[in-house]
Structure formats: C-alpha cells, structure tokens
Amino acid sequence: MMNDIKDWYRSGLPFVWLNAAAVSASIIMVLGLLILIAVRGLSHFWPHTVYEMTYHWGGQDEVIIGEIHDQELVTVQQLRDAGIQLDTEDEIVTRYLIKMGNRDVYGVDFRNVVKPLIMAREVPGDIVVLERHEYGNFYGFLKNVKQSGQVIASGEASWEALQPLLERVYRLYDEIKEIEKSEIGSVNYRIERLRLKERGLELDGKKTPEAVVELDAARAALQGEYRVLEQRLVELYTEIKRDSLTAEVQNGQVVEIPLDKIVKAYRPNTMGLFAKIGFYIGKLWEFVSDEPREANTEGGIFPAIYGTVIMVLVMSVMVTPLGIIAAVYLREYAKEGPLVRMIHIAVNNLAGVPSIVYGVFGLGFFVYFLGGNLDQLFYPEALPSPTFGTPGLMWASLTLALLTLPVVIVSTEEGLARIPSSIREGSLALGATKAETLWRTILPMASPAMMTGLILAVARAAGEVAPLMLVGVVKLAPSLPLDGNFPFLHLDRKFMHLGFHIYDVGFQSPNVEAARPLVYATALLLVLVIILLNITSITIRNHLREKYRALEQ
Question: Reduced to 3 states, what is the DSSP secondary structure of residue 66?
Fold first, then answer.
C-alpha cells in the first residue's frame, strides 16, 4: 500500500491534480467576480417598480413614494439601540433603502425604512418617473401639462399630451447640442487658430499690413458665422423653455417642472415585459453612447470609453517599436558582457517599479521639461498658456509606454530566442545580409511573441489609474481627443478614462448610493474593453503563428 502511494506521488499526478484544482478555483473566482459585477451593474438600468408606502414613523403615518434600491437584514436590537421602537417578536427584520428621488424637494433622495413599520404598500399605475438633467430622478403623480403657460391637459389625459411635447424637446435639445459642441466649437477653434497665427507673425516680425487685412477678413467671416449660430441658439433656447408639467410629490406638494429639464419620462408600473426590455436596451445604449451628467452619477460614459481606447492605441504605437528595437539589439547585436547583464537587470527591475513612480516621472520629465521646451521652440505664440507643457494624451500614452516597455522587451527576446539558429545560418548562406535576415525572416517569425508582449502591455495599461491622474486624465473632458478639426488627433488634450471614472464615481461622488451601481457597470465595461482589445491582438497573433509555423518546422 505504501509503495503504491509512493509510486503515485513520484508519478507527478498529485501535482497535476493540484494545478488543475488551482486553475479551476481561479476560473471560478474570476467568473464569480464578473457575475457579481454584471448583476450589480446591469440591474441598475431595469425599470424597477415604484411603490407608494404608508410608513408609521414618529408616532404618525406618512406616505413614501419610491423604488426599493437595496435591502438588508438587521437585528431588532440594533434598531432599538438606534432609537427605533419596534413592536415585534422577531429578532431579525428587513430594512429597505428606498430611492425617493426629488432631491430638490427633500434635500436627499434615499431613505431607510424598516419593514415592520410599513403599514401598507401599493403599486399605483399612474406614478411617473422623470429622469432629469439635474437633481436626479423625480417620482410623483402627473397633474397637468402646460404649453406656453396654458394648461392643455389634466388628469389621465396629461400623459398622452406629454409625449409629443417631450419628443419636441428632445429634437430641440439634440439641435442645441449639435450647434454648441460641433458647429460653435469648430468656429471657436478656427478663431483661436487665427489668434495664434497673428501672434506668431508678430513674434517673427512678419505682421505686415497685408497680413493683418487678411487675418481681419478671415476673423470677420468667422465672427459673422458665430453670430448666426448664436442667434439660432437664442431661438432654440426660447423654444425649448416653452412647455412644462405640474406634478404632486409624496408630501402633497405640487411642483412645476420645465420639460427642457427632463431626459426621459416613463411609468414603470404600467409597463409590460417587452416594454421593460425595450427600455432596458435603450438605457444600456444610453450608458455606452451618451455623456455623463450630475457629477458623473447619471448619463453615459462614452467619453471615458473613447479616451481609454484612444490612449491604449497611441500607447501601443509608441511602445511596440521601442520594445522591439531594444529586444533586437539585446538579442541579435549586443555581445554578452557586464553592460548587457546590467541592462537586463534594469529591464527586470523596471517591471517591478510602482506605477505611481512612472506618473511622477512623466509629470516631471515629459510634461514640465520636454513639454515646456516644446512650447518654447514650436508654440511660442500660445504662451503663457501651455500647449504640450501640460498633462495630455501624448504624455499619458508615453508614460504608460515606459510602464509596459519591459513586458514587450522580455516577450520579444523570448520569441527571438526560440527561432532555430539554422534559419539564420541558411539565410546568410544564401547571400542575405544580417539586416536582411533579421528584417525578412527573423522578425516575421518572432511576430507572435511581439503580439504576446503587446497583449500583456494593453491589459496592464488599460487598467492603470494612478499615473494617469498626474499626466492627463480628468474628471470631465469638454472635447474628445479625436474630432473633425485639423490635425484631427489632438495629442495635447486631456481625456477621460474608465479606470479613473470608477475611482471618481466610487470615492469622490457627492451621492454615493446613486453612484454605486454605475461603479459596477463601468468596471464591467472596462473589463469588456480590455477583453475586446486582447481578443483583437490574440486573433492577429494566432494568424501570424499559423503563417510562420511551417518555417519553424
């Protein structure tokens, strides 16, 4: 028996099973984490039931309108210690966190209620939920709808009368947004370019009367274009403020809400399954395609997605040639010696440096030193306002390129080392030079290893936050790094990032409870973006591996 156990142990099977168990446990934990994030984040967009509760509090009954945001089990003794008197024999009761909304009316939009103190709970079909540009959700009963200050519908007819008015507001809002963000933004950009051009001519001593006349004519044309757009904006803002609605909240107070403050209006208690599914899909699309609002606790995160992808792509363009050139030199050209060993040690040590140190280096060297000198040499007309002497997309990408450079170097070196020496010798024997052998044979065969290094670099860079806080990422970026204004890709602009968005919403938000589901949803989206980038790189790597496998054999 003992001999059988020893033979089984020597065969290595226990270690195989141990490794299999460790891998299985890791996969289960990762899947469990993703499922938790998905459930907590994606459930936020479902149209939840809104209740009207009669709550006995302070010796009297009051009405609470809202949706159940969360619930937990608490002991009766805990509640009694907090001053809440309960007449129950249960030791544990349920406590609900009710999202009441109406922050402009109550001051807060969440409230804890204890289940035993809920005297009645109803689901009225005429409760209206309004998503607003500010103050969060509104919960109440629609009383009437006004057009130009005149009531056009009351009672149940108000809901039907409200729909075309909201559609009109949405169209006007989209037109306003297009004029402000695109057309006026483009005019302002061109006016600023003219100002810089004039300043540059002045610094170079070339500000001639002819040049001034030409600049003034161009500026006058742009200002005329701006005045036309400005007048159109005034008209649109006048039109969009025309209509309003009147609603009653839980304490009986009647409030009037301009329709231009409303993002979406719906009645969740009367929605069927398919209507809820359609609403859910629309909210998901809004989340990934719209801009944030309400201190990033409402709306979408499209600028953060855009900034993350652009930053990763620019970083990849920077780190790949640097890493490959360094690896080729160390493997193919450098002779073994103390210097090469020191370089290898330095590369390995760089992989262990905390990321925040790279951020400090990027801020000091790239932003202040390199960017400041670039401004002095190439952008003197913009001074004292910095162009590249301030955190931006290029410095963030370059900082992360340095952060991930050791990964690309090591992966590329390993790929070069796996190529048989007979291939090099055969190429040289056929008359090819060392450079031709390297460029036409060795590097293509090592390309799968290069892609592996790039995959690891992308996964590392996309999730980094600490260095980006110093070299370019911001809470809210007014303009995207890529737009229709020349030179189209603006490397000097600040940008938003999914990782920083998670930090900002989760730890800096003024409304923690409202922001918590968005933290989970944004985290899930960040994981999906990284997976998508990695799948793209893995597909390219596998294609290259199949292409050059025959040569390796």
Answer: strand
**Contact criterion met (CB below 8 Å) for 467 and 359:** yes
Using the predicted structure, report yes or no on whether residue 52 has a pLDDT greater than 70.
yes
Sequence-distant (6+) residues with CB within 8 A of 471 are: 359, 362, 363, 366, 367, 391, 392, 395, 396, 399
Distance CA 94, CA 188 (A): 57
Q: What is the mean pLDDT of residues 240-251?
A: 90
Per-residue HEC secondary structure of 152-174 comes to: EEECCHHHHHHHHHHHHHHHHHH
Quick check: helix, strand or coil at residue 71? strand
Note the pLDDT tens digit of each residue in 292-312.
888 788 888 999 999 999 999
Q: Is the torsion defined by CA of 8, 12, 15, 16 positive or negative?
A: negative
Question: 139 with 129: CB under 8 angstroms?
Answer: yes
Question: Omega into 487 within 30° of 0, i.e. cis?
Answer: yes
Residues 9-40 have pLDDT tens digits of 677 677 788 888 998 998 899 888 889 888 88
* Dihedral sign computed on CA atoms, order 269, 271, 273, 276: negative
Q: Where are the domains of the chain?
A: 50-123, 142-270, 305-552
pLDDT mean across residues, the chain? 87
Q: What is the mean pLDDT of residues 483-511?
A: 85
The whole-angstrom separation of Cα 93 and Cα 114 is 7
Closest Cα to residue 127, out of 146, 111, 143?
A: 143
Average pLDDT over residues 234-255: 90
Give one DSSP letter per residue of 95-153, joined into a string: EEEEE---HHHHS-SEEEEEGGGEEEEE--TTEEEEEESSS-EEEEEEEEEEETTEEEE
**Contact between 69 and 303 (Cβ < 8 Å):** no
**Closest CA relative to residue 276, chosen from 43, 51, 39:** 43
Residue of 203, 426, 397 whose CA lies nearest to 318: 397
Tell me if 490 sits within 8 A of 483, measured CB to CB.
Answer: yes
Strand runs labelled E in 148-242: 150-154
d(CA 334, CA 331): 6
49: pLDDT strictly greater than 70? yes
Contact assessment for residue 68 and residue 52, using Cβ atoms and an 8 Å cutoff = no
* Cα–Cα distance measured from residue 425 to residue 313, given in angstroms and rounded to the nearest whole number: 37
Is the CB of residue 92 less than 8 Å from the CB of residue 79? Answer: no
Task: Extract the tokens encoding 151.
Answer: 């009531």
CATH of 305-552, one of 3.30.420.40, 2.130.10.10, 2.30.30.100, 1.10.3720.10: 1.10.3720.10
pLDDT tier at 5, thresholds 50, 70, 90: low
- Is 147 in contact with 76 (CB distance < 8 Å)? no
pLDDT in tens, 443-467: 888 888 888 888 888 888 888 888 9
Exposed, middle or buried: residue 323 (CB in 10 Å: 0-12, 13-18, 19+)?
buried
